[in-house]
């Protein structure tokens, strides 16, 4: 049996553990045992919000170094996504006519060779031959742009991972856009995509099993992970002069930095030319777009220097230590 034939197996997923009475801490520990559907896009480098390196830190037990995500933080998209999930599901049923129910279990791929593939479904669709899984999403003002042309790539990865684990043939994605628009998208099982997804996820999982960090990807998430992995410097100096690969990377970095500086100067000059022409105008229109140049409202802040002069012991009474960050400086 070839790999594609294995992907097409219709054996039901295994119920790894019930989540009905599971604490959040226990649930997070279960998730460390494999790659869940919400991890899939990150594992293959397609999640715009998280890097493989940050996910690797979580899977290898290094998440204590990362900033904690507060479950009850009302400014967090995760908080509102969890709170609104039942409402999205109810509106899905209202619009589609399909009934849904919760599974309350972490599912595991039935193939022992893919036991690291886990899935935690939002809902299963009951009594439909056309679709078996429901994934509920919410998108705010900024996240909505990712849905302009349909289901974002990272969500497609999540759903195809779910179909791979469960052996099901189709899933609906129901998304609430900006709290006022419900959209439903059908995603059919794609065995060729699943085959590639498994290959890339298996590669990521090998980094976890070997405790080897995956390559960085240039994202803010990777930058955060590096700061958390290596918060302090030792004072040592590494000699890369004989390492042709690292020396080439450094040379490319210097070249790119110089190009950015040059481009930023050009950008500033172009912007200033438009500002000079605008004068006191608030807005200008062009053949291909518009710009605005408006004064923001005045704000009142504390003059810390003046306060410390008048009350010198203020800082000793109310000290706030801000941890330092390692700065990356280039010298040529």
Order of neighbouring strands in the sheet with most strands: 2-5-6-7-8
CATH topology of the largest domain: Lambda Exonuclease, Chain A
What portion of residues belong to β-strands?
5-15%
The tally of helices reads 11
Alpha-carbon distance between the termini?
A: 57 Å
Biggest sheet overview: 5 strands, mixed
Please tell me the CATH architecture of the largest domain by its name. Answer: Alpha-Beta Complex
Overall 3D shape: globular
Domain YqaJ viral recombinase: 26-168
InterPro entries: Lambda-type_endonuclease, NF-kappa-B_Signaling_Reg, PDDEXK-like_dom_sf, Restrct_endonuc-II-like, YqaJ_viral_recombinase
Organism: Undibacterium seohonense
Pfam families: YqaJ (PF09588)
Label this structure with key terms.
single chain, 332 residues, alpha+beta, Lambda Exonuclease, Chain A, 2 domains, 5-stranded mixed sheet, 11 helices, globular, PDDEXK-like_dom_sf, Lambda-type_endonuclease
Give a structural overview.
This protein is α+β, with helices and mostly antiparallel strands and 332 residues long. It has two domains: 226 residues, Lambda Exonuclease, Chain A, CATH 3.90.320.10; 74 residues, no CATH class. It contains eleven helices and ten strands. The strands form three sheets. A five-stranded mixed β-sheet has the order 2-5-6-7-8. A three-stranded antiparallel β-sheet has the order 1-3-4, with helices on one face. A two-stranded antiparallel sheet has the order 9-10. Helix 4 crosses helix 8 and helix 6 packs across helix 7. The model has no long low-confidence stretch (mean pLDDT 91).
């Amino acid at each position: 049996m070839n790999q594609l034939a294995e992907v097409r197996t219709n054996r039901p997923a295994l119920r790894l553990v019930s989540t009905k009475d599971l604490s959040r801490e226990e649930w997070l520990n279960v998730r460390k045992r494999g790659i869940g559907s919400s991890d899939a896009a990150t594992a293959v480098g397609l999640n715009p919000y998280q890097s493989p390196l940050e996910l690797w830190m979580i899977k290898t037990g290094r998440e204590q170094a990362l900033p904690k995500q507060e479950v009850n933080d009302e400014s967090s998209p995760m908080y509102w996504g969890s709170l609104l999930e039942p409402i999205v599901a109810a509106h899905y049923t209202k619009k589609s006519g399909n009934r849904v129910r919760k599974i309350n279990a972490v599912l595991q791929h039935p193939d022992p060779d893919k036991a690291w593939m886990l899935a935690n479904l939002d809902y299963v669709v009951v009594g439909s031959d056309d679709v078996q899984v429901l994934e509920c999403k919410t998108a705010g003002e900024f996240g909505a742009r990712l849905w302009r042309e349909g289901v974002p790539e990272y969500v497609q990865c999540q759903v195809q991972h779910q179909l791979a684990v469960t052996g099901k043939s189709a899933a609906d994605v129901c998304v609430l856009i900006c709290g006022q628009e419900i959209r439903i998208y059908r995603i059919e099982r794609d065995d060729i995509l699943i085959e590639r997804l498994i290959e890339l996820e298996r590669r990521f999982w090998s980094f976890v099993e070997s405790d080897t960090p995956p390559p960085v990807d240039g994202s803010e998430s990777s930058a955060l992970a590096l700061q958390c992995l290596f918060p302090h410097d030792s004072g040592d100096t590494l000699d890369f002069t004989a390492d042709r690969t690292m020396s080439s990377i450094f040379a490319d970095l210097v070249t790119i930095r110089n190009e950015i500086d040059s481009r930023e100067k050009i950008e500033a000059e172009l912007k200033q030319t438009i500002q000079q022409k605008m004068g006191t105008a608030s807005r200008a229109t062009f053949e291909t777009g518009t710009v605005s140049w408006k004064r923001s409202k005045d704000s009142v802040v504390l003059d810390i220097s003046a306060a410390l002069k008048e009350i010198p012991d203020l800082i000793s009474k109310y000290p706030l230590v801000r941890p330092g960050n390692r700065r990356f400086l280039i010298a040529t």
